[in-house]
Amino acid sequence: SIMSYNGSAIVAMVGKNCVAIAADKRLGQQALTVDMDFEKVFRMTDRAFIGLSGLATDVKTVHDTLRMRVNLYRHREERVIEPKTMAYLVSHMLYERRFGPYYIEPIIAGLDKDNKPFICSTDLIGCLNFPEDFAVTGTASDNLFGMCESLWEPDLDPEGLFETVSQALLNAVDRDAMSGWGA
Questions:
Q1: Quick check: helix, strand or coil at residue 10?
Q2: What residues contact 66, with CB distance under 8 A and at least 6 apart?
Q3: Where are the beta strands (DSSP E) in the chain?
Q4: Is 22 left (phi over 0), alpha (psi -120 to 50) or beta?
Q5: What is the dihedral of CA 35, 48, 147, 94, to 10 degrees?
Q6: 22 has which bridge partners?
Q7: Model confidence at 181, in pLDDT bands (50, 70, 90)?
Q8: CA dihedral 36, 41, 42, 44 (to 10 degrees)
Q9: Which of 51, 138, 167, 176 has the fewest Cβ atoms within 10 angstroms?
Q10: Residue 11: which of 181, 154, 180, 128 has the closest Cα?
Q11: Are 26 and 182 in contact (CB under 8 A)?
């Protein structure tokens, strides 16, 4: 599958008035490791982040396009985009290309203006999913689901959330040959 060609693992979790997003840094061509410092999580505003898993060329293209659209939003609206609004922007951007899609699965994470945590994931044509606990994507998503279901607890403080996300990601990528190594 083209979605697993480069391999990836991205997880976002909600805590008590906090949110965490983490990803591995491996870039591969199937089983061949090409780079160990490939960025997959991007800071879009001071309070909103996006993680992009999938085909590496589309990750770069979508990041650049989204950065341009977020900046355009800031100039037109004269305010910073909220994470939920950014999720709808990403969904619309992906749905525009539904007949020749970007081969990515984004996860949006951030805090809204009231410091309420927000996470969202989409598929490659922009169908939104708003989980209340955690979201995972990438070739290690099956392993991540299992680790997150085992480790996540409601109302984690920032330190506990950091530890939970770290342990979930590290243990999941240890069991996936297409991601990891530098998480």
A1: strand
A2: 44, 50, 89, 90, 93
A3: 9-14, 19-23, 27-29, 32-35, 41-45, 48-54, 104-111, 117-122, 128-129, 134-138
A4: beta
A5: -70
A6: 11
A7: low
A8: 180
A9: 167
A10: 180
A11: yes
What string of H, E and C letters represents the secondary structure of 164-181? HHHHHHHHHHCCCCCCCC
Cβ neighbours of residue 1 closer than 8 Å, sequence gap 6 or more: none
Six-digit token string for 122 = 């989409």
Verdict on whether the full-model pTM lies above 0.85? yes
Calpha distance 129→162 (Å, rounded): 23
Amino acid letter for position 43: R
Which runs of consecutive H residues, i.e. helices, occur in 78-178?
83-96, 141-151, 158-173
pLDDT in tens, 59-95: 999 999 999 999 999 999 999 999 999 999 999 999 9
C-alpha to C-alpha distance for 74 and 111, rounded to whole angstroms = 17
Confirm if 51 and 165 have CB atoms less than 8 A apart: no
First to last CA, the chain: 23
Q: Compute the average pLDDT of residues 109-131.
A: 95
**Cβ contact 109:121 at 8 Å:** no
